[in-house]
């Protein structure tokens, strides 16, 4: 049986809403046979965190969108990853991202763009959401559609400013994050299988 691969969800959550997104993404990843999912709160920049992310085949980044950008805690994590970048320690890993804000738009795209650029600087392979837009994209759309906020670069969620994490984000937004986690896991599995096949072929050629 092939070795299990690991998808790490590295996130910050200010009030618990983004943490629900993180759990949904992890649930989606672990729903794929052969995949383990780990949750990592990046407010604690420990050696264990860096070691776990280094072992993972895929990292899904998550942050709330505050004032049109990722949170200060997530940015601190991103800047601290410069030590990993110096050795290209995450090169060729799979990456993706998700974010939540109180506004329906909230300039969430800026946060996802920052995450994609972080992944690009690390030499990672970015996985998009891979869903058509839902809800207001068509007259027949519904607010429980997958990708109801119409994002493409990553998974978006919206939590009203006066709603606690027990009620927000919406089930549709959580299912969208779950879809992203599953898509990342499937992509990471395919790449890992391809590498194993290539390594086997090269070993055979060497003989």
From TrEMBL:
<feature type="domain" description="Flavodoxin-like">
    <location>
        <begin position="7"/>
        <end position="185"/>
    </location>
</feature>
<dbReference type="InterPro" id="IPR029039">
    <property type="entry name" value="Flavoprotein-like_sf"/>
</dbReference>
<dbReference type="GO" id="GO:0010181">
    <property type="term" value="F:FMN binding"/>
</dbReference>
<dbReference type="GO" id="GO:0016020">
    <property type="term" value="C:membrane"/>
</dbReference>
<protein>
    <submittedName>
        <fullName>FMN reductase</fullName>
    </submittedName>
</protein>
<dbReference type="Pfam" id="PF03358">
    <property type="entry name" value="FMN_red"/>
</dbReference>
<dbReference type="InterPro" id="IPR005025">
    <property type="entry name" value="FMN_Rdtase-like_dom"/>
</dbReference>
<dbReference type="GO" id="GO:0003955">
    <property type="term" value="F:NAD(P)H dehydrogenase (quinone) activity"/>
</dbReference>
<dbReference type="InterPro" id="IPR008254">
    <property type="entry name" value="Flavodoxin/NO_synth"/>
</dbReference>
């Amino acid at each position: 049986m092939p070795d299990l691969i690991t998808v790490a969800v590295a996130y910050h959550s200010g009030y618990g809403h983004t943490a629900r997104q993180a759990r949904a993404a992890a649930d989606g990843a672990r729903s794929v046979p052969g995949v383990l999912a780990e949750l990592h709160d990046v407010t604690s920049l420990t050696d264990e965190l860096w070691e776990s992310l280094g072992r993972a085949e895929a990292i899904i980044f998550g942050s709330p969108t505050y004032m049109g950008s990722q949170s200060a805690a997530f940015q601190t994590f991103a800047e601290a990853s410069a030590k990993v970048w110096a050795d290209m320690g995450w090169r060729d890993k799979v990456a993706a991202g998700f974010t939540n804000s109180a506004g329906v738009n909230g300039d969430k795209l800026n946060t996802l763009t920052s995450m994609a650029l972080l992944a690009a600087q690390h030499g990672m392979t970015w996985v998009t959401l891979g869903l058509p837009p839902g809800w207001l994209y068509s007259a027949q759309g519904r607010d429980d559609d997958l990708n109801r906020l119409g994002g493409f670069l990553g998974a978006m969620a919206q939590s009203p400013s006066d709603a606690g994490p027990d009620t927000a984000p919406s089930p549709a937004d959580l299912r969208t994050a779950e879809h992203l986690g599953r898509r990342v896991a499937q992509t990471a599995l395919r790449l890992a299988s391809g590498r194993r096949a290539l390594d086997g072929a090269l070993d055979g050629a060497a003989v």
